[in-house]
Design a protein that fits this description.
The complex is a heterodimer of chains A (44) and B (458). Chain A is an all-alpha fold and 44 residues long. In chain A, 66% of the residues lie in helices and 0% in strands. The chains are: A mainly alpha (44), B mainly alpha (458).
């Protein structure tokens, strides 16, 4: 493995990264939760 | 800067403070939106009562007629992916994503007009044709970009985006139901305003992808990527153009690999609810069957990420060999679990099968990259998606017609799926051999030209 120097990023960089993932993650998580709730009926 | 100039490839080059981990969310925004197509069936019943509201009346569209909307959308998905692939490589992902957003969002709006005025041709033109073109361009638009940003993990990167296509229906289905309930009145089913809102929502969501996607600068390399590239003797070192790729046996073998894998899965996916109810009569209610369909959707989505990420470690050929061998074994064994009355084993078997169905879609872009290089992998992927359109017809036809034939010849409903499953297992064995014959592409196909799309980014 090659050792590399990691660049220092601004807070804005990390906020943008978290915001982007949250924007797609929240609706996807909501959809998955809806399906899980529906699937529970299979084992009742 | 004008909007059109902003969409150009030259203006979407990444700056120094850009993280490649911003590209998967951009790609997911597109795929989560266009994945709505898988949930179109929630509109079927309300659309069939557009005039009668509570029940179908004379002049209402029949369910079989409404079915054409989804079929036309999928046909146009395949056609546009195949036709616009080379254009996408030339103009870059941002413009392609924008056109996809306009077509997909606009398709909803035109479709809403068709529903409101009860003009079926307008609904077909809007959601089917325009929306279908948006689906096709959107599906392939992030592939090349993701592969260039993640040369060390192409399977995981493309799998993450294509996972969104599987997950899109999970968002769209409850969202559509909620919106229709909100807009429903004694004189309207609420489908037309639901289309208007969904078109606007999806357009806005896809624009997030348009604004946040970037292409890597020339000669950009990820850190530590050498580690992954050193152990891949199977991977081509040059590039093959899309026009040349379709003249290689590798392309057609991979076409067959995708087609057979999808055929086996899609037939089951379409029949999952009646199948489990008929296999376990009196045990599984329609509500529990809906839960089974939901679990299969989760497996389809999770498999897209899991198997494609695994392919970065064990190789694409090994992953597809697993799909075909394990799939054939499961298709042969699972009907027996139905006879044994074991619901848990039956469900587990189909969860694994559907995870491999999703995995087949998600791993193919990385397989194409291994075979043909990166310069036109999006265009090659677009052409390969015709295998999906073919399987979309072949799978349901096989399952439905064989089942009907069996029942017509006195086979009990619970046993009617067994023959179909054996045929699916046979198809997977054929797929195993197609995958086995895939070898490294001959060097004579490697291009020495430098097309515009290469010089712009590499």
């Amino acid at each position: 493995m090659i050792e590399v120097e990691r660049p220092q990023h601004s807070i804005g960089f990390y906020l943008r990264l978290i915001g982007a993932w949250a924007l797609v993650g929240v609706p996807l998580g909501w959809g998955v939760w809806q399906v899980i709730q529906r699937s529970l009926g299979l084992f009742h | 800067m004008s909007l059109l100039a902003f969409l150009d490839r030259e203006h979407s080059l990444a700056g120094d403070d850009y993280s490649r981990w911003l590209v998967p969310p951009a790609a997911l925004a597109i795929h989560l939106s266009i994945g709505q197509a898988y949930a179109f069936s929630v509109f079927n019943l309300p659309l069939s009562r557009s005039l009668g509201i509570t029940q179908s009346v004379a002049g209402d569209w029949k369910l079989s007629t409404i079915g054409w909307v989804f079929s036309i959308a999928i046909v146009f998905l395949g056609l546009s992916a195949a036709l616009f692939g080379s254009w996408l490589e030339r103009v870059g992902p941002r413009k392609a994503m924008f056109v996809s957003a306009v077509c997909f969002g606009g398709g909803f709006e035109v479709g809403a007009l068709g529903i409101a005025s009860h003009q079926f041709w307008l609904l077909l033109l809007g959601y089917g044709v325009l929306g279908g073109i948006g689906l096709g361009i959107g599906y392939i638009s992030p592939v090349t970009t993701l592969i260039r940003w993640f040369p060390d993990r192409p399977g995981m990167a493309t799998g993450m985006a294509i996972m969104g296509f599987g997950g899109g229906a999970m968002i769209a289905s409850p969202l559509s139901t909620m919106l229709m309930a909100r807009f429903k009145t004694p004189t309207s089913t609420g489908v037309a305003p639901t289309f208007v809102v969904m078109g606007a929502l999806y357009f806005a969501f896809m624009m997030f992808g348009v604004f946040s996607v970037r292409v890597p600068r020339p000669n950009w390399r990820p850190r530590l990527s050498q580690r992954a590239e050193q152990r891949r003797p199977f991977v081509i070192t040059g590039n093959v153009t899309a026009g040349r790729a379709i003249r290689t046996p590798q392309f057609w073998l991979l076409w067959a690999v995708l087609c057979l894998n999808v055929t086996a899965g899609i037939g089951v996916l379409g029949q999952a609810s009646p199948m489990i109810q008929e296999m376990f009569p009196g045990v599984i209610s329609s509500g529990a069957a809906a839960g089974f369909v939901g679990l299969l959707s989760l497996a389809n989505m999770g498999g897209r990420f899991f198997w494609s990420s695994l392919s970065d470690f064990i190789g694409r050929k090994a992953v597809y060999a697993t799909f075909f061998l394990l799939g054939a074994a499961l298709y042969s064994v699972v009907p027996r679990t139905g006879h044994m009355g074991n619901v848990a084993l039956f469900v587990a078997g189909y969860v694994v099968i559907l995870s491999m169905y999703g995995g087949g879609f998600a791993t193919i872009p990385a397989y194409l990259r291994d075979m043909f290089g990166t310069i036109q992998v999006g265009a090659i992927h677009g052409r390969l998606l015709t295998a999906w359109s073919t399987a979309g017809i072949l799978g349901p036809v096989l399952v439905n017609y064989i089942r009907e034939y069996e029942i017509a010849h006195g086979v009990p409903k619970a046993d009617a799926y067994t023959t179909t499953m054996y045929i699916m297992a046979g198809l997977l064995v054929v797929g195993f051999f197609c995958n086995l014959f895939v070898h490294r592409v001959d060097e004579r196909h490697v291009t020495t030209e430098q097309p515009a799309s290469i010089t712009a980014t590499a």
